[in-house]
Structure to design on (99 residues):
């Protein structure tokens, strides 16, 4: 009996699935509302930053208008962004195309 030589093409993953992989940046943007001390407090609570790291990111937000506070998988990045928004900080996600 002849063998069947059925070939299966490699599975293509949907673009949406691929987008979920890779690195995403959580970026905090400057706003005219929150006090610097409050932003430091939020960074310490949400990310577990020490005082020095929290102040560094707060100053980046204040002086440069933005700071990348976390980089990683999209699902976790979305969770951090949502949490920061719950604390009334302006946070967005960006694809980190360097990874």
């Amino acid at each position: 009996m002849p063998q069947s030589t059925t070939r299966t093409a490699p599975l293509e993953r949907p673009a949406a699935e691929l987008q979920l992989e890779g690195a995403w940046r959580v970026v905090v943007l400057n706003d005219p509302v929150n006090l610097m001390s409050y932003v430091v407090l939020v960074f310490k609570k949400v990310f577990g930053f020490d005082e020095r790291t929290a102040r560094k990111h707060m100053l980046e937000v204040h002086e440069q208008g933005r700071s990348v506070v976390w980089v990683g998988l999209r699902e976790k990045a979305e969770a951090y962004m949502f949490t920061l928004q719950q604390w009334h900080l302006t946070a967005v996600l960006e694809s980190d195309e360097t990874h």
Notes: The longest strand covers residues 66-72. The radius of gyration is 20 Å. DSSP finds four helices and three strands in the chain.
